[in-house]
Amino acid sequence: MRYRRILLKMSGESLKGTLESGIHAQSLVHYATEVKQLCDAGVQVAVVVGGGNFIRGQELAARGTERAMADYMGMLATVINGLALQDALEQLGVYTRLQSAIHMEAVAEPYIRRRAVRHLEKGRVVIFAAGTGNPYFSTDTAAALRACEICADVFIKGTRVDGVYTADPEKDSGARRYLQLTYQEAIERNLHVLDGPAFVMCRDNKMPIVICDITKPGRLGDVLRGTGAHTVVKDFTNSVLE
Q1: Which of 191, 220, 214 lies closest to 203, judged by CA?
Q2: Which residues contact 70 (CB under 8 A, 6 or more apart)?
Q3: pTM of the predicted model, to two decimals?
Q4: Cβ(53)–Cβ(81) under 8 Å?
Q5: What angle do helix axes 25-40 and 67-91 make, rounded to 10 degrees?
Q6: Domains (ranges, CATH) in the chain?
Q7: What is the DSSP string of 25-65?
């Protein structure tokens, strides 16, 4: 494996599968299996899962809910997803710890950076829930923050496409995938690699970003071995297209 310690960011929508909302059992097992395979290969894995399969704070705010209140509701949705992923992993025999930025000791440990690192060193998967614990910050930003705090080797943004393209590949057959992309070009071309604050945090702390498809079995492991399709965003001197 190219990386020893990773931070994997998954959207809440990835867990709903074909459902309108909620958690799709087969999708949950799929992602737990993908994480287990990385652990079996010796990778230290931390995970941040969004809550969009239940609630999206910005959408609630747009419909009239007070923004801070809406964001807190979204943070609680990430705890539900974290508990579900924890259970799925432990059913596969993977030791797991759920840490929440909002204190709720009955279901999760409070987030403590040194404790999280120690769990990773012992081979446990650490799931970070409740974002940063503050409204107005996305789970992308929370994931970037945690990646920097735990000294991850890479921030992996798991999506349903196999990288960053020059245009939307679902709409433009001529779109080409970047093999590597500079931070500066991602900004100049407004490629929406991550939410703005999350991207700036990665750039300023020289945290490499890998964008890849995690919906296909085995693809995440292939990417970490350097064989699967993906895009790396880093402080390269120039971008490279496939």
Answers
A1: 191
A2: 55, 57, 58, 60, 61, 135
A3: 0.95
A4: yes
A5: 60
A6: 5-241 (3.40.1160.10)
A7: HHHHHHHHHHHHHHHHTT-EEEEEE--TTT--HHHHHHTTS
64 residue type, one letter: G
Residue position matching structure tokens 């799931």: 127
The secondary element (H helix, E strand) that includes residue 222 is: helix 219-225
CA–CA distance, 16 with 13 (Å, rounded to integer):
5
Tens of pLDDT, residue by residue over 25-55, are 999 999 999 999 999 999 999 999 999 999 8
At a CB cut-off of 8 Å and minimum separation 6, what does 24 contact?
A: 15, 16, 17, 18
* CB environment 57-86: b (16+ within 10 A), e (fewer): beebbeeeeeeeebbbbbbbbbbbbbbbbb
